[in-house]
Amino acid sequence: MFKPFIIAVMLLGGFSAAHAQDKVWKHGILEAKSDSGFIGMVDKGGFAAKRGLKVEILQIKAGATLMKALISGEIDSVDMGAAESIVAGVRGTGVKIVGCTWPGVPQVVLAKSEINSLADLKGKNVAISSPGSLPDLLFRGMLDAADVPFADVKLATQGADLDRYKSLVAGIVDAAVVSNEFEPIMPPNVKVLAKGGVAVPKFLRLCIATNSKVLAERRDDLVKFVAAEMDAYKYAAANRDVTIKLAHEMTQAKPDDKRAEFITDQAIREKQMDPALPIPADRIDWMQELFVKAGVIPKTVPTATLIDASVQADAAKLAAK
Question: Are residues 275 and 146 in the same domain?
Answer without folding.
Answer: no
